[in-house]
Structure formats: C-alpha cells, structure tokens
C-alpha cells in the first residue's frame, strides 16, 4: 500500500468511477480512481416498489439486494420505513430522475438528485481543496486505486491554505460574435502573451497544444470559453482527429458532445442566458462570462463556496450561489438523518441570487414624501447586520419549523409576529443551522477586513461570495420548488423584519432622532434639532436596538449630506433604494444612480462621477450652492465633448440584455433593431445575452440607421484597416487607434440623444440642490442663461414625520 498527500484539486466521475486529482506540496499532480455506489431511498405501495426494483434489475443497476430501513421525513418529522437501493450505475441516476419526474406523486424517491461527486465527498467527508491523505494500490495498467481516503483538514476552517496554481488566460481579440476564423485568439500567461491566428483550425490547435505543454496551467481563465472558444476547439479537434492538451486526464473515457447553443430562461420576468458548459478534466476552466460567482467574488470566492458546499470548483463556477446553499443544507439534512426531499425545480432553470431577491423583498419602507428629491445634512445610516439570515438563525426559521406538525396544539411556543405561525420548539431547522455557520464565516471575514488583514483582496472576495449566498438564502426559503423552501417560512422572515425595523424606528425616536428614510434593513436618522451626530451617540443607540431586536445594528456611516433623487417615473416619490451622499470622512456612497449603472454609456457615467467628486469636497449644501457655476462648468465640459465629437466612440456604447429570441421581437425597440441587424450578419443572439450598440440617429425613418452594433462597427473597421493593420499589430493602443483616428473621422452618433442622457445624469444628482429646475434648457439651442441664483434658497426641505408614508 502506498501513501500520497495533497490538496483535492479536481474531482469528476464517469460511470461508477470517481476521478480525483491530488496536488502535492511539491506541486506534483497525481490522478486517483475510486468506486462509488450512491444510495437512494424509495417509498411507495408494495406493487409500485416491486416494479421499481424490477426495472433496476433489468438495468443491472443494483449493487446490493434492496432492504427496508427506517428514515425520518423532513417536513413531517416522522420516521418511516423506506426501501434502500444501492446503485451500481450512478450514471443512470440523471436518466432515472428524469423519468421519475414524470411519475411525480405516485411514489416518493429520495437522494436521487444529489450530484454524484458531491455524494461521494459527503460519504468520505472530503471537499474541494481539502488536504487529503490517500492509501492506494497501483494496478497493472498503472492506475492508482484508492483504498482509503481521509481529509486532514476540516471543512469548517476559516483561514485555510490554497495551493499555488498556475493560470493561463484565453480570450478573443474582437467581439465573440464575429465568425471564429476572422478573430484572433489571445493566450496570456504570467510571462508571455501569444496572439494566435484562428484562420486555420489545425494550426490553432497545434499552437495551443504547444503552449499548454510548455506552461502546464492549472487554471484556464477564459472569456467566452464556454460559449465560443472550447466548442470550436473541441469540434475542430474531433473533425480532424487531433489530440489536444486541454485536459490533463488522458486515461479516463471522457466523451464530450459539442454544443454551442446556450439556454435562455425566464425568471420572474427577467430573461437569463446561460452558455453551455465546458469543464476540463484535471484543469479548471472558468469562463468569467459564464460565472456569477466569478463576476462577484473572483476565484477565491468560487473556492470559498466550493469548499463549504462540496461542489467541485468547475461546477461551482457555473452554478448559482443558491445551488451552493442548497448543498450546504443537504449536508446538514444528511447529518440529521433526514430523507432529503426531491427538488422539484431540478429540471427547471436555475435562478440567480438577484432575481429571487427582487422577486419579492417584502420589506418595510418608510420614506418622506418630497418633490424633486431631497437633500439632508447630518444624517446617519444604521444597518441591521445580515438582517434576514440573522432572523432565520435567531428565530429558528426553516421550511420544516414553520407551522410544523410536531408542535401542533402545544401551548407556549414562539409565534411569528402579526402572522401567528407556529415555530417548532423541538427541532433545530436545517436552514437556520446551515446559515448559522455561513453568518459566522462572514462575520469572521468582515472582522479580518476591519482589522486590516494583509490579504484584504482575498478576504473581501470570500466575504462577498458569502454575502451573495446569504442574499439568496432568503429567496430560496420562499421558493416552493427549492429543495428546502416554503412560502410561509419566507413570510415569517419578512414579518419579523418589519417588526424589527419598526422597533428600530421607535428606539431612535426615544433617543431624540427622526427617521427620515427607512428600507427593509436600514434606517436613515437625523437629530431632531438637525445638529451633527457623533459616533458615540450612535453606538449607544445601536446597542439598545440590538438589545430589543436581537439583531446586530451597525453604523454604516454619518453623512455630511445625503440626497435622494426624485423618481424618474414619478418625480414626487424618491425611489426607495436610490441615494447618494458624502460621509464626514469625505468618502462617497451611492446606490442606484447612473454612475453605478452598467446600462449607461461610460462617458455619461464618468461625467456624473466627476460632478459627484466635485460635490464631495463640500461639507454643506450651502457651500455647494455658492459655487454652482463650477458644477455647471463640469457639465459643459462633457457636453462640449458630445457636441464637437472629441471623444472615443467606445465610451458611447450602451449595453443591454436582450429579453427575447430574435424571431419574437415585434416592436422596434433599440434592442430589437440591434438583434435583427446581428441576424443579418449571421449572428444569432439568444434571449438573455448582452448586446452592445451606439445610438446613431434615434429618430431616423430608416431603422437600419438608428443604432449600430459593436460587431457592425468592428466589421467596418476591419475593412478600412485591412491594409494598415499589419504594421500596427504590435502597438498596445491598437484599439484606440482603430476606433478614433484611423477612420479619419469620428463614428457618427446621435448628439441629441447622448446630450439628453448627460442632462439626466446631472439632474439626478443636482435637482435637490440647484437654483433652477429646468435642466433641459442647458442643452437648448438658444443659449441664454438657464438660471439665476436665488439668494437664501431653502434647499433643506423640512421632513415632517407625519408626512411620511408607509408602504408594507
Ligand atoms: Zn415542531
């Protein structure tokens, strides 16, 4: 028997075999093989069970003779006899699960939809990047068979080591929508950048093979690798019978079906696009464009979630934070000996964190009824720390604990405020149990960040990945098709939330503050005499709120000034979660305003940001108002760029998500025209994918002249630059040159349209302060003075608390 130690780097399965890549301390990677027979449970009438067993025998899929065993039902908290089936062909499980879905209701089946590799890791108590000790034997054909496997590290560790990993980046020079052969593939390592022509597929693969051999990367970080690059590479390799170096694994039988079509699905009215998936075997392929967690929390965020959920890294990269959360809950449920319920949504699309969150936040809002937005001075913002998850932990809220059957009729048990639902007194809920650990982890990282941890970037990513998971936890709780979801438990959380926010408001008022704005888990308060607020005062207040609500209350900051822009739909109401202000230390905070929005062009966002920076140098509104002409000058400097065209057209690009399949568009919205134009170029944009275009002439009668997609522009550029491109290919600023100078004239764009956007961005942040109300006049053709400064203008509108409105 031989022994090997190292980190569990990659894990996947093929048929009943589990493959594990272990990276030793010296950096060596070794492949091991194990066998795994997952266990599922069934409960049905004897006739149906007989049929089921017969079917499994026919498929030769049972490793043992089925036996009855006692297990506990999750919702009912009742022990029942179930048939235990040990499956010898785990590869059949997805198919079986699919078939069973159609028979749903005729019998109950448990544990059949747990990912095979995760099931294996649960059984062995190991997890991705665990430090592992393996006892193994080498077979005649040089395969390392695992005899014993054990983790030497703990899954709950907070400050774990990550082995050193080598990475390579793969991306395309131009938009991924151009025909692949007309693009250039860039491969970037820490030492070198390769520009590989794509015209000849065979040469391309040979070039890449060479690079992979030389650098032997652990991680392939791509942009559009799942959607475009790898499908093309694998297809070309298959057609030409070429071997590739992309996978490290050359022994196991891996079959890939080549797929370029992604899936689009509708979640609560938003269309989401997900590209197909191209994991590698023995390396990590992470497509930054196809990974929510990567976008929000980078690689370390993926590692953090992958470890605690036992989802392999490449699966985690492509999954939602909700899926990771579900697996953490499964882990808890298995330890509690529950029959893990079947996930009805398994065959539906996956939901991303935000959509579930936005579906129904159900939080309490109180806000002042002020026209034209409003501006305040000396305001403090207090936030309940991780309010919803903390409520779930503190009040034991979980789908099985709300209105549980085991406590029916029992006196003196906790009820949900205003709803009166029972909360189980006999069981610790699995959602509350799972979240308790996640909340604890996040608090630990937040504490490290506060204490200036040397690796603050990593800490921030870990913290942020957990934040997203906690955000999802609330949505999943109420989502009836989630594995652990029930509407009443979701309602219970919001009911507690409202109660706590009202308590916070009452305590603040007792302490001589007015609540000027409140939403879900934060309140904005001002002293009744509007005088400056000190941190010491707030600490006292927070402790009192915490005492009464059992949820930690934190000081987000004290603002010198804070402004709530008016709603663009209804100018009388500020939007609940849109505000900006400057803390007393000069730091800016903004939510929901244009400079933070990706669907506005860069130039407009920059302009607003510039104006905000200017505003942040002042401590009072009065000071700002006295120098109003300066901010107007900033506005004009950007307007000047738009008028003269002295700009880079790329800064005018608008990015939008498409909401339909190309055929389904009927109205001539910008995205319709852009999508149809791409169709003409032979590019099919699926619903939920992003498109980028500039507005050329919005009012034009000819639809084709209204908007121009980036792809169309790049194509034009190609034509005009074909002759000269050669000499320049080494220049670093190649993109800029092509876009602005080489055409000898700037790309045409709709000046009026962009100038209007500029006005909008100015108005949003300045209307509560300005001495004039007609912002449109700033870009009017008649250039008379648009405003006159009124002396002693009453900018600080008084907020009358009786004026506040409550929206439940
Ligand atoms: Zn109970």
Automatic annotation (TrEMBL):
<comment type="similarity">
    <text>Belongs to the DNA polymerase type-B family.</text>
</comment>
<feature type="region of interest" description="Disordered">
    <location>
        <begin position="715"/>
        <end position="745"/>
    </location>
</feature>
<dbReference type="GO" id="GO:0000166">
    <property type="term" value="F:nucleotide binding"/>
</dbReference>
<dbReference type="GO" id="GO:0003887">
    <property type="term" value="F:DNA-directed DNA polymerase activity"/>
</dbReference>
<dbReference type="Pfam" id="PF00136">
    <property type="entry name" value="DNA_pol_B"/>
</dbReference>
<protein>
    <recommendedName>
        <fullName>DNA-directed DNA polymerase</fullName>
        <ecNumber>2.7.7.7</ecNumber>
    </recommendedName>
</protein>
<dbReference type="InterPro" id="IPR043502">
    <property type="entry name" value="DNA/RNA_pol_sf"/>
</dbReference>
<dbReference type="InterPro" id="IPR036397">
    <property type="entry name" value="RNaseH_sf"/>
</dbReference>
<dbReference type="InterPro" id="IPR006134">
    <property type="entry name" value="DNA-dir_DNA_pol_B_multi_dom"/>
</dbReference>
<dbReference type="InterPro" id="IPR042087">
    <property type="entry name" value="DNA_pol_B_thumb"/>
</dbReference>
<keyword id="KW-0238">DNA-binding</keyword>
<dbReference type="GO" id="GO:0006261">
    <property type="term" value="P:DNA-templated DNA replication"/>
</dbReference>
<dbReference type="InterPro" id="IPR050240">
    <property type="entry name" value="DNA_pol_type-B"/>
</dbReference>
<feature type="compositionally biased region" description="Basic and acidic residues">
    <location>
        <begin position="715"/>
        <end position="729"/>
    </location>
</feature>
<dbReference type="InterPro" id="IPR023211">
    <property type="entry name" value="DNA_pol_palm_dom_sf"/>
</dbReference>
<dbReference type="GO" id="GO:0003677">
    <property type="term" value="F:DNA binding"/>
</dbReference>
<dbReference type="InterPro" id="IPR012337">
    <property type="entry name" value="RNaseH-like_sf"/>
</dbReference>
<feature type="compositionally biased region" description="Polar residues">
    <location>
        <begin position="730"/>
        <end position="741"/>
    </location>
</feature>
<keyword id="KW-0808">Transferase</keyword>
<keyword id="KW-0239">DNA-directed DNA polymerase</keyword>
<keyword id="KW-0548">Nucleotidyltransferase</keyword>
<dbReference type="InterPro" id="IPR006172">
    <property type="entry name" value="DNA-dir_DNA_pol_B"/>
</dbReference>
<feature type="domain" description="DNA-directed DNA polymerase family B multifunctional">
    <location>
        <begin position="334"/>
        <end position="722"/>
    </location>
</feature>
